[in-house]
TrEMBL record:
Alphabetized SMART domains for the sequence: TGc (SM00460)
Source organism: Maribrevibacterium harenarium
Stated name of the protein: Transglutaminase family protein
Entry-linked Pfam families: Bact_transglu_N, Transglut_core
PANTHER family noted in UniProt: BLR2979 PROTEIN, BLR5614 PROTEIN-RELATED
Gene3D superfamilies xref list: 3.10.620.30
Length: 293
C-alpha cells in the first residue's frame, strides 16, 4: 500500500517571537514493513539555519532556527510511503516464548539486541514503574503465560476497560492516574501499557506516527481529518519489536505509519526548543491528511 501524508503544524503567538531554536521529529523513518520513498519539509518563516540529523534512537531529526520576528510558525511536511502487511499477527497463535523465559533472557542478556532491550524495562521521563501498575497486570503476565498472546489480551483489555476522552488528561498525566480514572487518549493508553509491562520486567517502547481514518460509507473523506497517533511495541528476541494499538484494539499493519520511537513521548515530541519573547501564550493548530495512493 502506498500513502501520501501531509502534516501541518502551526503556532500562533500573542506577540512576535524574536528568535527560536527548534528540533522536530517530523521526518519519518523506515521499518521492517515501511519504506519512506521521499519526504520534504517547508518551514515559514524561512529558517536562517536548518539541517537533518539522527537521534539516539535512530529517529530522523530536523533542526532549525529562525532569527526574524514572527507571530506565526508553520511546519509543513509531505511524505510518501510504501507499506507492506505486518506478519506478526499471524504468529500470535503459535508463538510459545513465555513471560518467565523472556525475563530470564533479559536478566542475563547475551546479544546486543537484548542488551539494548533492557533499557526499555527502566523508568523514563513520563513513565515510572510502580506497585499499583505491577499488581494490575501481574497475574496476566505470569511466568507461564505466552508473551505474545498475553500482550494481545492486554491490548484488548485496555480497549475494553478504558474510555477515549480527549478532555481527561494532558501530556504529563502519569500512567497511575490513567489507570485510576480509566480514560484518556492514545498517548495515555500507550504510556499505560508500557508502564505496566515495565513494572513486570518486560521491555516496551513508545511509537509515534499516523493512522489512516476512513469516513463512514457514502461520505467523502475530509482533508486534514486524520490524526497523529501513538501505540506501543514489545520486544521478543526472535521477532524483534512487535506492535500493539490499544486505542483501536489491533496489531498495527498497513494503516499505521511510523514517524519515530523512544522510551516515551518525551523522546519523540514533534517539536521542542526555545523561543524568545512571544507574549504570554500561544495557540497550536495541527492538520494531518493520510491519503491512499
Amino acid at each position: 500500500m502506498k500513502y501520501r501524508v501531509r502534516h501541518i503544524t502551526k503556532y500562533q503567538y500573542n506577540a512576535p517571537v524574536t528568535l527560536c531554536y527548534n528540533m522536530a521529529h517530523v521526518m519519518p523513518r523506515d521499518t521492517h514493513n515501511q519504506k519512506c520513498l521521499s519526504s520534504a519539509v517547508h518551514i515559514s518563516p524561512t529558517p536562517i539555519y536548518q539541517r537533518e540529523g539522527v537521534d539516539y534512537f535512530g529517529n530522523a531529526t530536523y533542526y532549525f532556527s529562525i532569527q526574524e520576528p514572527h507571530k506565526t510558525l508553520a511546519i509543513d511536511v509531505v511524505s510518501y510511503f510504501d507499506i507492506t502487511p505486518n506478519q506478526h499477527a499471524l504468529q500470535v497463535a503459535t508463538h510459545t516464548l513465555t513471560c518467565g523465559q523472556l525475563r530470564a533472557l533479559l536478566a542475563q542478556p547475551n546479544t546486543p539486541a537484548l542488551r539494548l532491550a533492557v533499557e526499555y524495562t527502566l523508568d523514563s521521563t513520563h513513565i515510572r514503574r510502580s506497585k499499583a501498575l505491577r499488581e494490575y497486570v501481574a497475574e496476566l503476565f505470569n511466568d507461564d503465560a505466552p508473551v505474545l498472546q498475553t500482550a494481545l489480551r492486554f491490548t484488548q483489555q485496555i480497549f475494553r476497560d478504558f474510555k477515549f476522552d480527549p478532555t481527561a488528561t494532558s501530556v504529563s498525566t502519569p500512567p497511575e492516574q490513567v489507570l485510576k480514572e480509566k480514560r484518556g487518549v492514545c498517548q495515555d493508553f500507550a504510556h499505560l501499557a508500557i508502564a505496566c509491562l515495565r513494572s513486570v520486567g518486560l521491555p516496551a517502547r513508545y511509537i509515534s506516527g499516523y493512522i489512516e481514518t476512513l469516513p463512514p460509507p457514502g461520505q467523502e473523506k475530509l482533508v486534514g481529518a486524520d490524526a497523529s497517533h501513538a501505540w506501543f511495541a514489545l520486544y521478543l528476541p526472535d521477532l524483534g519489536w512487535v506492535e500493539f494499538d490499544p486505542t483501536n484494539n489491533q496489531m498495527p499493519s498497513e494503516q499505521h505509519i511510523v514517524t519515530a520511537w523512544g522510551r516515551d513521548y518525551a523522546d519523540v515530541t514533534p517539536l521542542q526548543g526555545v523561543i524568545f519573547d512571544g507574549g504570554d501564550g500561544q495557540q497550536l493548530h495541527v492538520s494531518v491528511d493520510v491519503q491512499r495512493l
